[in-house]
Amino acid sequence: MTYKAPHQKTLSIVSEDGSKLLLDHVLHKLIQTELDTNGNKEHVDSDLSRANYRFELLGTEKMDGRSCYVLQVIPVRNNKLLYRGKIWVDGQECAVVRIEAQPAKSPSFWISQTQIEYQYEKVGDFQLPVRNRSTSRVRLGGTTLLTIEYKDYEVNPVQQKSDTVSQ
Question: Are residues 128 and 120 in contact, defined by beta-carbon separation less than 8 angstroms?
Answer without folding.
Answer: yes
